[in-house]
Design a protein that fits this description.
Five copies of one chain form a homopentamer. By secondary structure, the first copy, chain A, is of the alpha+beta class. Chain A is 42% helix and 25% strand. Chain A folds into two domains: 126 residues, Alpha-Beta Plaits (2-Layer Sandwich); 113 residues, 2-Layer Sandwich (Alpha-Beta Plaits), CATH 3.30.70. In chain A, strands 1, 2, 3, 4, 5, 6, 7, 8 and 9 form a nine-stranded antiparallel β-sheet that branches.
């Protein structure tokens, strides 16, 4: 009993730790998540076999280091966490990291890896992309532009899906006008789902073996499925050489939720 | 002798445990297995090297936790078990899980993985699909619709086969009418096998690197082979980019049978 | 000295064990190896790193369990063994198992895996096929039918080769007549090698990610090479999507020879 | 405290060690990095799981051997180091080695691997290429030749990217004139980025499963992204069978920086 | 000191051991290396992690077993050794073994694997081919035949390269005359390199997932690169489905050199 009481205390400290948001950090985070010219990194990790063998007290000690590293870097990078275990087969955790410079992201991931928690993490994948101003939207008809301003439904969107995309050489060989035409058909197919499926696009060419990383949030997975089905039916899809492989499906979690789940 | 007597007792308790079906749970399970709008997850696991080194008493202790986790979640998810070992090369066990929300499935798999038994499981694959009302059947001629209502032969269908499918971009680029025509040819090819091979279809686009998960049960594997051969010969098959890879073949087992087999 | 004497005794017992063929088992085996409607399974295993660390006495103990499992199942399944080590890079042993039902094969492989020897085996691959009456032969001209009745040369055929095959969707989309025509050209190319290369065909569609498993035995590998070269030159080969990958090459061994070789 | 004082001392010695550049070595290095007929090797390593378990004092001892090996070989080979961890998912360190003969490179890598540090390194990839005089430039118009003489911006270029390239058989089958024409279009697309993105080309055919290794340095990753996007749009890109896979992204580090980072 | 003296002695014995060439063995070796109808096996091995942990004295003991196995089999098989470490990423050692029968090769590799040294070897790849009389040369014009008789430059050719090749189904579907014509163009492209790059061809169809294994020796890697580049430009190259993957690059070593290098 005494032991579990001590552990409960340790756990309380861990959760209630110095995870205070001050206005400045929040503002920086907002900028990183909305502006063009920001680097987004998707880092996928699996917990190794030794994690399962750690006793709960030790796990809590390790998880404290995770909290510490995130705390220490949150002034420079915006960090979001996702639980993949149970929904994706190749990784347990996804970190989405936004930064003005990839060096800041590398520094965070180096510190994470050399933390007490990091030694239980196996790096499964790292993908980078860049946010940019919309390419084709300026040429779309005005009603479509208006439609695109629809804000997604408020409230929680527990599911997140990441789909890496690579286009064919034929796609890039088309002239801008032809591509714009097809992107308009593509965009029209997405309109019915703008409210229930939130999207964000990252440009990857050269930073990775991808051209784009597409990121989605939703509370209605069935709508997301219908959206993808619609996108498979437009002409532009024939110029897609890789779509997924892997498709990454998980649930958004706060750092505290992740800590609580992994402590078990 | 005393030791094996104790172990036999332990084993009896394990098998005869609180695995009671109450009417409500059965009704929920029935709904999950028959209605559209349900998520089906196929989770493939391999037992790691350490399992083989556990002595039988310890295995029984571990298997008790498996029973416990399944018991605890069966109100929210419908769980079916399959033994792949000996018939498939990449996994030992398959869990087919039906749920109204993938979050419920994730919670079950998280608890499974953090159970005493779960630490011996290596996740080999996770695939998700959604049940939907038939797409093309409403447009089929009436005699075919009548044929499709044939119920499969009663009794046990010990073999289960799971074949993941991805269609080509060309398929999705065809108009609905052309696809319906080819699906009618596809369906005609399946009619001779409706009684001996039970089928269930899951739609996966966006949830996974697949478009469909096709699931089969049969007691006559030779009939199933003939069915697949027929399906390879119809026009629609030319629009299939991935068929299997892996093809998953196993035998359906009750939780108690699995426990008994793994305890050895 | 005493120790090696004991080990020699142990080894003698192992080799001279109750591996007695009674007439019934031999008849059943003959049927399984020649009739249509039989399932053939090719199970590939690698010995893990721990096997190399066992001392010879312990190996002999483990190998006794291999003999026991094979003995116990030989009434229901016909088992052939091949040594791949040194000739194939991904596996050390191949079991070819014929059974009237795949469940019987699964039971054998489960018992093999949970035997004392089985814990040193890593499953590398499992492929299944079904023997069927010849598809195209009935339509061949009579002289070719007569040629096909040639029996292979008596005596030992030490080399065995297994080549998995998958045909393209285009192949299955051809009409039966066109396929028969090409299979006649294919068969004509094999005639010069009928005597020196023994062949057996298994149909796999749906049971595996294959359409066929082709199995060969020969004492003249150079003839086998010439046969494959001839088959690559006929029109039907252009409809082959996968040929090998892996090609499995090994030598046929009796159970006693395998035991003797692995005991070293 | 005493222990950390000793460790600090050890670390000082490590960093301040005999890493002295004499004029001759610098001159040789300059030649290796600029002349044609030099072999460039890109060797990728991951730190194994045991490295994370070493205590800091032991790590410093190991890293001393890394410094020693580099020191010992720098008369014969020019060695550059890059930190990939956090930015690439399959490796932690990249060594770029230039030598007049690949045997000298092999000797360095053998000594590295058998050093005290080397036993913690898992070789993830080795690629070789040869520097050659420009193939197509002599035929370019004079203004383009002048543009190509632009020197890249001075100062640090912290990011390095390595993209392996394999051309299609169709590319090599084109006549020299057609290829020269397309390379001129390719080169024109690179002109806007000559100042902010430094490039170096290695020819690999036969030395590796590649035709080229393209190496980039930049402080502006967004410019590099735009450069790659431009290159994807020219006609020559359609003749590229492999571009990346993997794309290797890291930051340039001095040996001392690497030692300092890994000591943590 | 005493210990290193003993180790030096052990090492001397190892190197100076009974590696005596008698005239008969030399003659047999010569025949195996030059005649048609001989099987060539390329066996690739990586040293496992435990090797790096052995102390030098133990390594020498292990290496003695390597020498013993090679000694014991050299009457029946011709064995050549290559050091890949540092130049290839997937293996450390290559054994090229020529034998009149693949069974003899299997016996050597079985003994190697079960030797004291063999337990540190991980089999990475095994490829087989058959030497045959030239297929197309008899039909070449006389001046080309004369050119092909040029002997390669005397002296050491330290680099060896192995490139596995698979032709497309289209290649084999061409008639013999068309293929002969293209092989003449292919051969013409190799003439400038006959002296500086030594070549040997093995036919693999059916023995492996390959059609050919091409083997090269040179002291001028740049010439070898130019040769491959020339071969990529001839028409026949368009019918090549696999070229390399992997390309194996290493340096030729005597058994004593390998022993000395691995003892370190």
């Amino acid at each position: 009993m005494t032991r579990s009481f001590v552990m409960a205390l340790m756990f309380m400290c861990l959760i209630a730790g110095p995870w205070l948001t001050d206005a400045q950090a929040a503002a920086d985070r907002e900028k990183l998540l909305t502006e063009p010219g920001v680097y987004g990194t998707f880092a996928l990790f699996a917990l190794n076999d030794e994690w399962a063998k750690q006793d709960p007290a030790m796990r809590i000690v390790r998880l404290t280091s995770l909290k510490g590293v995130v705390e220490q870097h949150r002034e420079h990078v915006a960090i979001d966490l996702y639980l993949l275990r149970g929904l994706s087969d190749h990784a347990d955790l996804l970190f989405r990291i936004h930064a003005a410079e990839l060096r800041a992201t590398q520094e965070f991931l180096l510190d994470l890896k050399s933390s007490q928690f990091g030694r239980y993490l196996k790096t499964v994948g790292v993908m980078h992309g860049l946010t940019k101003k919309p390419n084709y939207v300026p040429g779309f008809p005005d009603p479509m532009k208006a439609d695109l301003k629809a804000v997604s439904e408020p409230g929680q969107h527990p599911y997140a899906i990441v789909i890496p995309v690579r286009k064919s050489a034929e796609w890039w060989g088309l002239d801008q006008e032809k591509r714009a035409e097809m992107m308009q058909e593509h965009t029209a197919a997405t309109l019915p789902y703008l409210k229930s499926v939130k999207r964000k696009l990252y440009h990857s060419s050269g930073l990775d073996d991808l051209d784009f990383i597409t990121y989605f949030e939703t509370s209605k997975l069935e709508d997301f499925h219908s959206l993808v089905l619609s996108l498979e039916k437009v002409q532009e899809f024939r110029y897609t050489r890789r779509f997924g492989s892997p498709t990454i499906l998980g649930t958004m979690k706060s750092l505290d939720e992740i800590v609580e789940l992994l402590a078990q």
